[in-house]
Structures are given as structure tokens and as C-alpha cells.
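Dear colleague,

As promised, here are the two records you asked about, laid out in our usual form so they can be pasted straight into your sheet.

NAME FIELD: protein one
SEQUENCE, THEN STRUCTURE:
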Amino acid sequence: GDFIMIGENEIILSSGQKARVSFACALYGNVAIYLLDDPLSVVDHRVAQQIYERCIGPCGLLKNKTRLLTTHQAQFLSESNQIIFLSHGYIDKQSCLNENNIRENYANNHEKSKLATLFDDDDKSMNDNQSIIVDEKLLNDDTRWSIW
């Protein structure tokens, strides 16, 4: 199974299947820290729940590893040690939330607005005003139209 070629001319996979294969390859890595960039977004709800429970969650294969999970799916927040909210590329709020608060607010179907109200207004957002985008500068104006 590890050496089967999967690609354009070999085997055609759906985006969900590609995500599962990619995630399985990451699990083979056996590293200390896993950075998971929304791996559950391309699979259906049932499959996402199974992957979370069997791999990412507190009883899953990665239970003794550090897991950084980016997601828009609030149902996975209840078992997180720390939650960081981003807004326009910057840290907006961060907190440790308890399971009961998450479940109550998720059940009310106002995930984003209700979760945001869990934080004290006294807590200051972290200010990160330094841009990571650098302005492009023209080095040479000799670009020929044939290149475009």
C-alpha cells in the first residue's frame, strides 16, 4: 500500500480521498508536533467526526502528540486545550474554554457570536500590527511584452 502510485495518470481520487491519503501519510511521520491545516473541511461531517475521534482527538492516535488544528468547525473546540481566534490575519482573542460553555453555545446555533462573548471584555486582544507582506519594487523596466 505505501508504494502505490496515486496521481494524474494512475488512480483518480476525489478531493476527500486525497485529503484522507494525505492525512494518513502525515500520521506515518511519527513526529512530536502536527500542524493540521483544516484537514476535516473536504470530508463530510460523519467522516470528519471519525477522523477527529480516531486520530486528532484526546483518545485518538495522536493523543500523546502536540496537535495544532486550524478549523472553522466549532464542534471540535470542546476538547481543545487552547483556542485562538483570528480576524483578518491577526490574533483576535485567545482563551482556554471549558467544555460546558462550548456545548451550550454550539447548541444555540450562534457559534461565532456566542463563542466570542465567552471572553471577558477586560481581556485585551493581542496587537500584531507588523505586516508580513512586503511591497514589490520594480528592479528593471526592461520586461518585454513577449513574456506576458
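NAME FIELD: protein two
SEQUENCE, THEN STRUCTURE:
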Amino acid sequence: MRVRSCLSMACLCLGALALVACDDKKAATDKPAASATASAAASAAPKPATPSATVTASASAAPAAAKSLAERLKCDALLPETPRNAAGLLNYKLTQQATCPECGPTCSMVKPDKPFEGVAVSYTCNAPYEKASADKQIDELKKALKKPVAVTLGRGGVMGEKDAGAFYSATAFDDDSDCKIVVDWMRGDKKLVEPLLKLALASVKQADLAAAKK
């Protein structure tokens, strides 16, 4: 009984579709002659001119968007492998991120066998820091960090614990470039923070920044 009902419904559906198709076809063939004349006149109308090849070529030759500072500064050049190993950072995988494209890159290092231990080195190099501005930021960090210790590298900085001790953070202002460098160490041996900060400060040069900004 159910099969017979389904077949009946299918026949009804097919019949409806056939009627619609038939009506469409009839409407297309039963148009008056005036309509055919109008169609012929419309087809004879001149077509608009196509854009010249010169315009197309010039449009396709538009310059590509300039890369951000975070893309132009490369982590493998800022933190070369040999000095990294000498600083005690052996067997760390280096990756590059652009958390602040106009500021500079963030270079992350993680050990493959210890994914929850690692370090991030963030560069902010898009504008020079006046002494008063740098000193103000250092004073604010001293209040925010737990057990703050002064950093004597570059133009000075501070390091200490943050986020309830989950991270050990060090910030310093470079003395021969426009960069502020922040090292955030997650777990692991925090004694490596200062050697890494020293390497980061030594590897970045104002000449490299100027070339990257062009």
C-alpha cells in the first residue's frame, strides 16, 4: 500500500513538472510577431566598445602592497642559530609571528619534546623611544612585575615574574636602534632569559631597520 502511494505521488510530481515545462515552451512559441521584430532590432543595436588592452594592462600592473615591518625583519637573522646555541638555547625550533605587523616580528622558540616550555622575543621598532618615555615604561613594569630586577643592557630595562609566576619577562630598550625588546619565558630555566635578551639586543641594528622600512 505504501509503495503504491509513493508511486502515485511520484507520478503527480512528474506530471506537474511536465505541465510547467509545456506551459513555458508554449509561452515561448506563442509570442506575437511584433515581439520577434523587437528582438531582431535589439540584436542589431551596436554593442558598447570593449576596454582597450592598454587600460587592462595598466590595471594589472598595479604595484603590490608593501610588506609590513614584521614581515621584512626575519627572526632567523635577528636570532641566528649559532649565537642561540652559544647562549644555551639548543634544540629549540624558531618560528615567526606578526602579532603587531607595524611594530616588528615576534620570534617564538619551543622545544619539540617540551611543547609547554618556550620563549617569545617581541620586537617593537616602528618609532624611536625618547628617554622619558622609556623610563616611564620601565617604572610601570617595576610595579607590575613580581620581584623586579634592573636590566643594565642597552639603555636599561627591567625583568621579573608575571602572571602569577607562569612567565619570567625581561624588557630592554636598545641603545643603537629604535627597538624595544621583550623576552617572555614560559617555565623552563629562566637563567637563559638574560643571555637571550643580550643576543637580541646585539643582533638588531638601526641600519637593518632603515633598510627594512624602505
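A couple of things worth noting about protein two: The first strand starts at residue 93 and ends at 100. The chain is about 45% helix and 25% strand.

Best,
R.
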